[in-house]
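ugh ok fine here u go
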Amino acid sequence: MTTIDASAARARLLEIIKDKAIVHGRVTLSSGKEADYYVDLRRISLDGEAAPLVGIVMRELTKDLTYAAVGGLTLGADPVATSMLHAAAAAGERLDAFVVRKAGKAHGLQQRIEGPSIKGRQVLVVEDTTTTGASPLAAVEAAREDGAEVVAVATIADRATGAGDKITAEAGVEYRYAFSLEELGLA
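structure:
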């Protein structure tokens, strides 16, 4: 297996995002807001070439933070978290992933958070694209209710709509993103 350095991974990931994930045209976002473009990062976070790069880039973005698990609100966070888990394993390190359900299960163990227990652990909440901040805020709340210490929120792409300030103000955690609208050629 060949290894790729973080700057090369970041450059290639940006190329792939621009090529495969940016869709131009009028769309309604999950927030209900309308936009002239859509950044569909599941097209890259589930892509065989791009997903490993996501893990490398997101780990590089957060390398100064201490966390034992990574996850967030399903569905946007799931492939990001698993990409980071695999990137950590490839580097000979251990990182667990977790999934936050939009609502708790009514059957089985009735858990809202799936995966290895995060109780008493430092965790990083991730997302693919951040617009309003509602999804990562819900994930932060659920992780805290489960007994985790959330160290930060990190996303692949920030839509520059004030979500970072909202996350910092409401959750009291740092907010980071790998790519800005300017880098994606959208600003």
